[in-house]
Description:
Blueprint: H1 7-31, H2 42-50, H3 56-75, H4 81-93, H5 103-127, H6 135-165
Helix pairs in contact: 1-2, 1-3, 2-6, 3-4, 4-5, 5-6
Amino acid sequence: MAFLKNRYFLLFTLLLLMLIDGQFSYLMSSVFTYHVTISSHLLLLAIIYFYHNQTKYFTIFSSLFLGGLYDIYYLNRIGIVVILLPFLVIFTNSITKTIFSSNFQTLTFFIIVLFMFEIVGDVCAVLLGMTTLTIANFIAYGFAPTLIFNILLYLIFQKLFKKVYFNA
């Protein structure tokens, strides 16, 4: 059982969650019209619980690694998530443990992390010329459906992720 609580094994499960997120996102895109894009962020939910009490060096290097893999797999270039994910992880690592005592507080924190990830990622994509989507269209057809879908995912998976990742 100690193997399942090993932080390197749990880091590998974060990599698997990143791949599962891609499949959920593809499934949601095929269910709805192609104007609406829904992104699954189970990885961010697991990161909130996993990186809470990790050492700084492990936090920085593993989040750089995950961010680089995310960039290569989803964006075909390194730049946005490899910078954004370590900042979110350091922000998560600095939060006190009392925020995890209430599900509402944890949900609020997850919404803040999701907002920062999506909005900063979109602004960076616009600045790098990766998209020409206006911010109004992004919020209406991308961020709002993504937020609703990820709140539902939070309600479904938060107990499991808290049990698996929180005290690793």
